[in-house]
Request: fold
Amino acid sequence: MKFIITKDYEEMSRKAANIFAAQIIAKPDSVLGLATGSTPIGTYDRLADLCAQGDIDFSKISSFNLDEYCGLSPEHDQSYRYFMNQHLFSRVNIRMEETHVPNGLADDMEKEGLAYDAMIREYGGIDLQILGIGNTGHIGFNEPDDAFPTSTHKVELAQKTIEANSRFFNSIDEVPKYAITMGMLSIMNAKKIILVANGKGKADILYESCFGPVTPKVPASILQLHPDVTIVADKDAASVMLEKVPELL
Reply:
């Protein structure tokens, strides 16, 4: 693992966006793995700015998102398709037909997951995957479990995840209880991974994920086994790591 510790969220977002920009410039037809949530918004803002300035070009880019809520249409303002359209896709020159998000309305989630994984393979896999990290250590919506799930699948969301996401809804009762999420196989098959984290609320789980045992009880810990992972964290999210592993500075 490589670590980039930044002074604040703005610098974290800029550093993460620079890694994406370098990937796009080096390989204009890259396949990008994308994540939702509040943490990557700043990164997407910066990428949109770079595209508007003509510094990067999304015209040959393809993308695959990690996950989607079950039961929400793409037009729902809390769906992850809506999120991506709002924060990135509508702001860059990407072809919308080359942006892929799991179908949260699929009648057969198992069939949808298999088809999603097959499409990723057809595109040659993911060149660069961005991840956030949840309070439970989840990446995508892969919650703590007895084993690492491999394929894209339907998952019941942990109560802590539902509570954390309730801030985006009018009430906790409106938060979907299930999601469809990319499994660990497609994530770990990505050629490069970048994980972004900010805020003291992520400090303990980030340390546990990076320096604790590799266990499905902390899903993000599997990233220790990947050959090319960069952690971009602000000093608050990195505070426990810096305390216990000061040589990171």
